[in-house]
Design goal:
The complex is a heterodimer of chains A (289) and B (188). Chain A has 289 residues and is an alpha/beta fold. Chain A has helices at 13-28, 49-58, 76-88, 137-145, 150-163, 268-276, and strands at residues 34-35, 64-69, 92-93, 102-106, 119-123, 174-176, 180-182, 201-206, 211-215, 221-223, 250-254, 261-265. Chain A has two domains: 13-223, Rossmann fold (3-Layer(aba) Sandwich); 235-284, no CATH class. The N and C termini of chain A lie far apart (40 Å). Chain B is globular, with a radius of gyration of 16 Å. The longest helix of chain B is centred in the first third of the chain and has 17 residues, at 12-28. The N and C termini of chain B lie far apart (45 Å). Chain B has a single domain (12-127, 149-181), classed as 3-Layer(aba) Sandwich (Rossmann fold). The chains are: A alpha/beta (289), B alpha/beta (188). Chain A: Catalyzes the breakage of the C-P bond in alpha-D-ribose 1-methylphosphonate 5-phosphate (PRPn) forming alpha-D-ribose.
Amino acid sequence: MSDQAYNFAYLDEATKRMIRRAILKGLAVPGYQVPFASREMPMPYGWGTGGVQVTAACLTPEDTLKVIDQGADDTTNAVSIRTFFERTAGVATTTQTAQASVIQTRHRIPEEPLRAGQILVYQVPIPEPLRFLEPRESETRKMHALEEYGLMHVKLYEDIARHGEISTAYAYPVRVEGRYVMDPSPIPKFDNPKLGNCPAIQLFGAGREQRIYALPPYCDVVSLDFEDHPFTPSKADHDCDLCGCATSYLDEVITDDQGGRMFVCSDTDFCETRRDAGHRGRLSPEETA
Amino acid sequence: MQSELSGGFTQAPQQAAQAFRACLEAMARPGQVQAIRGAAPPAPLSPAAGAVLLTLVDQAVTLHLAPSHDTPAIRAWVAFHCGAQLVDAEQADFALGTWAALGPIERFAIGTPDYPDRSATLIVEMAAFGAANARLSGPGIASVQEADLPAIPAIQQNHAQFPLGLDFLLCSGAQVFGLPRSTKVEAL
């Protein structure tokens, strides 16, 4: 039951048209950050105001929405955004990746491969990959225009000089279709290989920074690296302690003050689905009876 | 009875959202034909192009009507339902017409190196989508996609300017397909 005091999906129609125009330009120039007139949303900046606006512009009454926060469906941010759209758009919601047609995500890509017909909406804090190297917008804009990305390679090189390897572990910069360097939002670099050649549409919304960008399906996305230091997606060197999965991205959970810890899948739906299918890990022994 | 007041969305938020998803899929998957409905505009404006106008064009943007579609009925319909300022080709954010009437397409804004998004979107009316005459590849296309394009050399030239260039939404009846500047085109 939707809240009748709101327009469908909260935003007014003129705002949605403005966001929709920006999304289409973003798809036409993959990886380029399209400025848009971001609105104030009934949540603080940093809680996904950009993602929420993009989701609101895309939702139809037939959609099934899933919202994840670092892989989890049951954290505050995910629950509040899911409830927000239940109330203002009256759309069905789900926690199952396969059932969802629109997935809004904070900093993870679901483990289950996405399919055509799905839209993945990322919440982006700082959309400009060059921002921490060059604070002036006028300069970074020129650098993108001129394909002047040497500074980013210097940054990765300095990582190697200091740590012996590229230590950037999240928000790892990518090059889209050989043209624009893009910040994939703070997803772990483990997720970077899923950005490219994905059958789903990927949209990125940064509310405070007022930028929208996009990756069309089957896009060429390359994580920046060097010939002698190739890009390697990394994860904790463990199996999930609940479902036993050896290939999923893991969260480390401190369990006591004696050095006890456990590793669990960050994607809660993926982990639950595996456990329902009978997979077991170190801390979830086979149930008796 | 058809008047300039009729033919818009009857449930604007829901129908605009559905029409946008058709445009989104169209722009994300170049050459793949999408169904788009909800509008009943005056001829010769197609229902597809009418729905695109209702979904994307409003007071905040400018629209150019090519001679093929610059009729009093369409002007009145656009004025009531979209409210867009009608301008010459050079100033247009959106343009509407047949391919022949829109040309030469070099007149339209292709964006600037700093802001490639400040480019025109051309809504091209086609009598019908016939047999494919071009092979498309690029972002949004898994391997290859074939499509019926109104002109090939001009669209190849448009792609050559990437990341600048025009984006196209090609409409016929209640169907639309997209052709962003990123798409590489080869004649079949």
